[in-house]
């Protein structure tokens, strides 16, 4: 399920005093199965961009092709698109509202029209994938830690079997251990499911560890769109826009490309 954006522009509050062009002539192609990192400062257009990917926001101009079909063509099945492109918003735990974890994760499959047994099956698989211990399945989401809540929220999207998983700053507000756990878990998910992963972050360190490709956004435009090694070659320009990462990040990535074992150890991902 490839995604292609052609000369996409998006303007907030067009024609008013608050008019703001958030995306400028964005052209991108994301093949199925890639792990893509989108990085940029606050306000660079990352959130606006990803909200286009499942049709939540409609471009002011330009085209977006999903699996070869322009989603802006009349009659396009937006509902199906939303089933296929799962979006995990920033602080997704704010959207947990059911009485227990299991009901929360079943919510999406239920909306897709699955029967209770099928919903349960999808939810169980998703909760296992995100590494939440079984003893929490009947807990209220509000009794869980920040990292656990986030896992439940991600499971809620995974339970709908998306072909593309988009995560907006999934580590925001977590402590360093929680951050590493969630990122390792996302990398693990990518290996377990035939799924494109699009991870948004403002941290080059986070992105560089996992992404096959990095898209650097700056003031609404795509500044770079390449494999990490090629993007890192522009470290001076990245530094100038405040997106430098410690040298060790680049070295780690080079080692990985040369075949050294610097992959996350998924056995540490399981919650203690
Ligand atoms: P990022 O996710 O990289 O922080 P955003 O996509 O949220 O960037 O924002 C891009 C630009 O659009 C920013 O200048 C922001 O102020 C502006 N913007 C975002 N949301 C709105 C909105 N609802 N109304 C007006 N301007 C907005």
Automatic annotation (TrEMBL):
<dbReference type="InterPro" id="IPR017871">
    <property type="entry name" value="ABC_transporter-like_CS"/>
</dbReference>
<feature type="domain" description="ABC transporter">
    <location>
        <begin position="3"/>
        <end position="244"/>
    </location>
</feature>
<keyword id="KW-0472">Membrane</keyword>
<dbReference type="InterPro" id="IPR003439">
    <property type="entry name" value="ABC_transporter-like_ATP-bd"/>
</dbReference>
<comment type="subunit">
    <text>Forms a stable energy-coupling factor (ECF) transporter complex composed of 2 membrane-embedded substrate-binding proteins (S component), 2 ATP-binding proteins (A component) and 2 transmembrane proteins (T component).</text>
</comment>
<dbReference type="InterPro" id="IPR030946">
    <property type="entry name" value="EcfA2"/>
</dbReference>
<keyword id="KW-1278">Translocase</keyword>
<keyword id="KW-0067">ATP-binding</keyword>
<keyword id="KW-0813">Transport</keyword>
<protein>
    <recommendedName>
        <fullName>Energy-coupling factor transporter ATP-binding protein EcfA2</fullName>
        <ecNumber>7.-.-.-</ecNumber>
    </recommendedName>
</protein>
<keyword id="KW-1003">Cell membrane</keyword>
<dbReference type="InterPro" id="IPR050095">
    <property type="entry name" value="ECF_ABC_transporter_ATP-bd"/>
</dbReference>
<keyword id="KW-0547">Nucleotide-binding</keyword>
<dbReference type="InterPro" id="IPR003593">
    <property type="entry name" value="AAA+_ATPase"/>
</dbReference>
<dbReference type="InterPro" id="IPR027417">
    <property type="entry name" value="P-loop_NTPase"/>
</dbReference>
<comment type="function">
    <text>ATP-binding (A) component of a common energy-coupling factor (ECF) ABC-transporter complex.</text>
</comment>
<dbReference type="InterPro" id="IPR015856">
    <property type="entry name" value="ABC_transpr_CbiO/EcfA_su"/>
</dbReference>
<dbReference type="Pfam" id="PF00005">
    <property type="entry name" value="ABC_tran"/>
</dbReference>
<comment type="similarity">
    <text>Belongs to the ABC transporter superfamily. Energy-coupling factor EcfA family.</text>
</comment>
